[in-house]
Structures are given as C-alpha cells and as structure tokens.
C-alpha cells in the first residue's frame, strides 16, 4: 500500500462509520460487517451493508474475502427480514466505478425495498 492509498483509507467515511468515529443509523452489527440506513434513501427501506475492513469496491474482491462477502449477503437477508420486506422482495446493488454512479470508495451493498421497482435501472 502506498502513502496515498493509506491516506484515502484514513479519510474513508465508511471506515469511520465502521469504527464508530462517525455517527450512522446502524440497523445491524456483525463480526465482519455493519449495516446502516442510507442518508439519502431511494425507497422506504434503503440500507447499506459494509465490511468493517476497507475494500474499495466489488472489483477488488478476492477469494480471501469469502467470509466477509458471505456475511454481507446473510446480513442483507437479516435486514430484509427485520424491515419486513423479505417475502415481497428487494433489490441488492453493488455500484462499481463512474458509469454506475459509484460515489463512496468503500465496498457497500445497497439493500433497497418497500416499493415496486422498475427494470432496467436508470
Ligand atoms: P454509491 O453511489 O453506490 O457509492 O452509494 C453511496 C451511498 O452512500 C449513497 O446512496 C449515499 O446516499 C450514501 N451515503 C453517503 N454518505 C453517507 C453517510 N454518511 N451515511 C449514510 N449513507 C451515506
Ligand atoms: Zn473504508
């Protein structure tokens, strides 16, 4: 890791939420992941599931991250259940890069639900 990468992790807002340095509306806290409400919700339920450790985005995921990624998905299901949307369905989204509108460079899984959604996404 070079100095610039180390600095960007130090400045990462989602690392700060994971460490408790920055406040968030946390809905679930597990071994490798936490889940909190998106500050700009796009649906009645809009929760972000993030790894506690800094991974920039889904394209950086490696086999060694398997346990973390599985926990992200099981946490998403738990969130859907506690939000009461498990039966009706919900959308899971990883944005990667500029064309997808990826803004925060710390891996996060959007859990979106509570309304019907269109496809394809905009
Ligand atoms: P993405 O476009 O996939 O990078 O999504 C980043 C998401 O993070 C957006 O939906 C933002 O509304 C959300 N977000 C940014 N800062 C915060 C924050 N401090 N707390 C909660 N959600 C945030
Ligand atoms: Zn981070």
Q: What's the short story on this structure?
A:
The protein has helices at residues 3-10, 13-19, 66-82, and strands at 26-29, 33-37, 45-51, 90-93, 109-113. With 122 residues, it is α+β, with helices and mostly antiparallel strands. The protein has a single domain (3-113), classed as HIT family, subunit A (2-Layer Sandwich).
Count all strands and give the number.
Answer: 5
Task: Give the CA-based shape.
Answer: globular
Q: Which ligands occur here?
A: adenosine monophosphate, zinc ion
User: What CATH architecture would you give?
Assistant: 2-Layer Sandwich
For the sheet with most strands, the description reads: 5 strands, antiparallel
CATH superfamily: HIT-like
Q: What is the number of independent domains? A: 1
Describe the structure in your own words.
The chain is an alpha+beta fold. The chain has a single domain, classed as 2-Layer Sandwich (HIT family, subunit A). The chain contains three helices and five strands, in the order H-H-E-E-E-H-E-E. The protein has a five-stranded antiparallel beta sheet, covered by helices on one side. The protein is globular. The termini are far apart. It binds adenosine monophosphate and zinc ion. The site of zinc ion (ZN) has 6 residues, from helix 2.
């Amino acid at each position: 890791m070079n100095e610039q990468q180390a600095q960007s992790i130090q400045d990462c807002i989602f690392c700060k939420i994971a460490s408790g340095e920055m406040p968030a509306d946390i809905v679930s806290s597990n071994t490798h992941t936490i889940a909190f409400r998106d500050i700009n919700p796009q649906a009645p339920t809009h929760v972000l599931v993030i790894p506690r450790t800094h991974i920039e985005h889904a394209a950086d995921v490696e086999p060694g991250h398997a346990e973390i990624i599985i926990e992200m998905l099981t946490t998403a299901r738990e969130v859907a259940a506690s939000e009461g949307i498990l039966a009706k369905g919900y959308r899971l989204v990883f944005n990667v890069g500029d064309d997808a509108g990826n803004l925060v460079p710390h891996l996060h899984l959007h859990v979106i639900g509570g309304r019907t959604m269109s496809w394809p996404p905009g």
